[in-house]
Design goal:
Blueprint (H helix, E strand, L loop, with lengths): L1 E9 L6 H9 L6 H4 L8 E7 L6 H9 L8 E5 L5 H11 L2 E6 L4 E3 L3 H11 L3 E12 L24 E2 L14 E3 H7 L18 H11 L3 E14 L6 H21 L6 H22 L8 H32 L4 E10 L8 E9 L1
Parallel strand pairs: 1-2, 1-4, 2-3, 6-9
Antiparallel strand pairs: 4-8, 5-9, 6-8, 7-9, 10-11
Helix pairs in contact: 8-10, 9-10
Length: about 350
């Protein structure tokens, strides 16, 4: 066991990973007077989870391992099943730290991010998870409308003071810069999440919020800690209309699942109806309010898409669950052996078999 694990899930991160690893190589450890709160020596590690990359991500990590800092192991794991949720679960399984701090491959931590994350966890024993202050690091000057939807791009600034996310607020920190207690994740979070379990093409997102909701439901506190700061690099294409509308669609279609996680089973039918009526009202009001808006207004297009996707989220998810259930009911192909040849000549145990098989429909 170590005190802190930095986990970096990545997909085709060949060009992005080096900058993150450089930041961690220069990280400052907790000062001795702060360590007295918990222990005398601080131990940590960095793990990279390669989520089925097709580029040279593995070689990049290998190159850094050859010249890495001596006080912190740098480990590499490969996760073949595509999806951020799978990569994060692999990170949790492999991490040896009491705390696990997640960084995406486009998240650049400040030099004291690790130290601040560790100290906060030790001084807030009821915090099961806590998030960072996230600055937007735009590669090109962003359009003005980005300010209104910055939170959907994981740009989070909720003030200069730490505070707890109360369940009634219905606000939670994103996965970028999130720190969790490993034991809490293992006890509270299912091994396989529902959201985004097959990637963005599934039409879902917000699997990081699903994780935090499970932790909050288990009775643990969720916090915002502005002493932990990261910079989220955002390329120009993430500010374009097509990408933003796709993002809003996925976030909206996932909303019903997150809402239902907050409720008891007996409450869900009633609140589903209440949400449907309220979401319909919001969409109609917004359409009326913006009916004269230009078709080129990106902010209006994004908000319309979000409201529409939230409205149809229950039907979308019901259909998805039904189709998943149908696919699970299909019988597996039957296999029969049609010809078996025994070879006693070269087998170390006296014989071996070679079987010809065919698939029965």
């Amino acid at each position: 066991m170590v005190d802190f694990t930095v986990a970096i899930p990545t997909y085709n991160g060949e060009t992005r990973l080096p900058e993150v690893l450089e930041r961690l190589r220069a990280a400052k450890l907790p000062p001795s007077d702060k360590l007295a709160l918990a222990k005398e020596n601080f131990s940590w590690e960095v793990i990279v989870v390669d989520n089925n990359s097709t580029d040279h991500t593995a070689q990049v990590v290998k190159n850094y391992q050859a010249d890495w800092r001596s006080d912190c192991p740098l480990r590499y794991y490969f996760e073949a099943e595509q999806g951020a949720a799978y990569a994060r679960q692999t990170a949790v399984d492999k991490a040896r730290g009491k705390f696990i701090g997640f960084l995406d491959d486009d998240n650049l931590p400040t030099p004291d991010w690790v130290a601040s994350a560790y100290i906060f966890g030790e001084t807030h024993p009821q915090a099961g998870a806590y998030g960072s202050l996230i600055h937007g690091d735009f590669e090109a000057h962003p359009p003005e409308y980005i300010k209104s939807i910055a939170c959907f791009l994981a740009i989070i600034d909720r003030g200069p003071l730490p505070h707890k996310y109360e369940p009634r607020q219905k606000l939670l920190p994103p996965g970028a810069g999130l720190v969790v207690r490993k034991q809490v994740w293992q006890q509270a979070v299912p091994k396989r999440l529902f959201l985004n379990h097959r990637g963005r093409e599934a039409g879902l997102a917000s699997e990081d919020l699903e994780v935090v909701l499970y932790i909050q439901r288990a009775g643990w506190e969720i916090w915002y800690n502005p002493q932990m700061q990261i910079y989220h690099k955002i390329p120009p294409w993430r500010c374009e209309k097509d990408y933003l509308i796709s993002l809003m669609r996925c976030i909206g279609l996932s909303r019903h699942h997150l809402r239902m996680l907050r409720l008891s089973s007996w409450q869900r039918p009633l609140f589903t109806l209440v949400h449907l009526l309220n979401d319909l009202r919001k969409l109609v009001q917004y359409l009326w309010k913006t009916h004269r808006a230009s078709s080129s207004d990106v902010l209006v297009a994004c908000e319309r898409q979000l409201l529409l996707s939230i409205l149809i989220s229950p039907c979308f998810l019901w259909k998805k669950r039904y189709l998943d259930w149908v696919s699970q009911q299909k019988p597996s192909p039957r296999i029969s052996v049609t010809d078996t040849k025994l070879n006693f000549k070269n087998s170390p145990v006296g014989y071996s078999s070679t079987a010809k098989v065919k698939q029965l429909k």
